[in-house]
Amino acid sequence: MHQLKDKPWWGYIHEDLRELLQESLVLCQKAATWDERFHDYAFVVFPAAKAYEGFLKTLFLDLGFITEGDFYGRRFRIGRSLNPALEARYREKEGVYDRLVDFRGGRELADKLWDAWRECRNILFHWFPNERNAIDLKEAKAKVDMVVSTIDLAFKECKINRVKEQGS
User: Fold this and answer.
1) SS3 45
2) Global pTM value
3) Is 122 left (phi over 0), alpha (psi -120 to 50) or beta?
4) Which of 11, 111, 150, 155 is within CB 3.0–4.6 Å of 116 for a Cys-Cys bond?
5) Residue 28: which domain range?
6) What span, in angstroms and rounded, lies between the C-alpha atoms of 35 and 102?
7) Total domain count for the chain?
8) CB 82 within 8 A of CB 111
9) If we measure between CA atoms, which residue out of 41, 40, 2 comes closest to residue 18?
10) From CA 138, how far away is CA 78, in angstroms rounded?
11) Residue 39 in 3-state DSSP?
């Protein structure tokens, strides 16, 4: 598992996000020791997915892609803003995907951020008839790893070097 405190972004993210990431790692370890087995281990991924949302909002604010009103408000939605298929009439005002593509000079990072969001949050936490979105513990661990590695990538690619005042 990850040594999160050694990550270059550890001091960048809010304390509650650090706690959420650690919770997912603890759940990964503890769930492996439980006698009881579950149909769906999405609950293991949920804290990491929530932390990923907070990381992305912070990143987008720091990059100037969203306003403080978006960051602190209740209306801004990561899934909508990162969706590469967002309708044209919403893209300029609400979309972050195109801004990220322009910022990085290509789609690779934007696509990775979107894929992690879709796979580690949207697909897991919605239910649709005729779709099996339940995951086993091994898949849950892989999703938590995907969140952490995507944060690693985004922090590196966006060249964030500011550490927040809340400490490390």
Assistant:
1) helix
2) 0.91
3) alpha
4) 150
5) 4-75+110-157
6) 49
7) 1
8) no
9) 2
10) 26
11) coil
